[in-house]
């Protein structure tokens, strides 16, 4: 079993430590020091799918020269502010990258490989779109 740790620093500031001993500072927005925990969930989803997309396209011999994922979300108005909709917008670049390959890599990540998406999907609808940027952008 994998174990992570969160240590209280002070006020509403915390240190999150992952299974490989890397760390991230978390806080509430009014502390202004670290990442909001709910934003970290969106970052985790984006990073999880980014790893998959990079790997899938490399295996297709379409390596990326750039990848950026923006996540936008809608949450319930009342506690516990459950995420209901999450949209991921992918910006990809690569010399031989095709729309078909990009679409397939994103879909495979979302539907088969990304553990974060598989977990979130129980309560939130996840949608995606993408654009392929030219080499000069």
How would you describe this structure in keywords?
137 residues; GMP Synthetase, Chain A, domain 3; 2 domains; three-stranded antiparallel β-sheet; three-stranded mixed β-sheet; 32% helix
| CATH H-tier superfamily of the largest domain | K homology (KH) domain
How many independent structural domains?
2
State the name of the first-level CATH class of the largest domain. Alpha Beta
Strand order of the largest sheet: 1-2-3
What is the C-alpha radius of gyration, as a whole number of Å?
17 Å
Q: What oligomeric assembly is this protein in?
A: single chain
What sequence of helices (H) and strands (E) makes up the elements?
EEEHEEHHE
CATH architecture of the largest domain, by name, is: 2-Layer Sandwich
If you average the pLDDT, what whole number results?
A: 95
Structural class of the helix and strand makeup? alpha+beta
Beta-strand percent range: 25-35%
Low-confidence stretches at least 5 residues in length (pLDDT < 50)?
none
Please outline the major beta sheet. Answer: 3 strands, antiparallel
In CATH terms, what is the fold-level topology of the largest domain? GMP Synthetase, Chain A, domain 3
Helix-residue proportion: 25-40%
The beta-strand count equals 6
Overall morphology: globular
Describe it for me?
It is built from three helices and six strands. With 137 residues, it is of the alpha+beta class. It folds into two domains: 35 residues; 96 residues, K homology (KH) domain (GMP Synthetase, Chain A, domain 3, 2-Layer Sandwich). The strands form two sheets. Strands 1-2-3 form a three-stranded antiparallel β-sheet, with no helix packed on it. A three-stranded mixed β-sheet has the order 4-5-6, covered by helices on one side. It is globular and about 50 Å long. The model has no long low-confidence stretch (mean pLDDT 95).
């Amino acid at each position: 079993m994998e174990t992570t740790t969160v240590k209280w620093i002070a006020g509403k500031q915390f240190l999150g430590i992952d299974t490989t001993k890397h760390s991230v500072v978390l806080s509430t927005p009014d502390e202004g020091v670290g990442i909001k925990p709910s934003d970290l969930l969106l970052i985790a989803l984006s990073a999880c799918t980014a790893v998959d997309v990079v790997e899938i396209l490399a295996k297709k011999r379409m390596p990326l020269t750039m990848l950026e994922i923006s996540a936008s979300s809608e949450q319930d108005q009342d506690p516990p502010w459950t995420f209901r909709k999450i949209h991921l917008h992918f910006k990809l670049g690569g010399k031989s990258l095709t729309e078909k390959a990009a679409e397939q890599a994103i879909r495979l990540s979302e539907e088969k490989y990304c553990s974060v998406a598989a977990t979130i999907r129980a309560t939130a609808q996840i949608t995606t779109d993408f654009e392929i940027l030219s080499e000069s952008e």
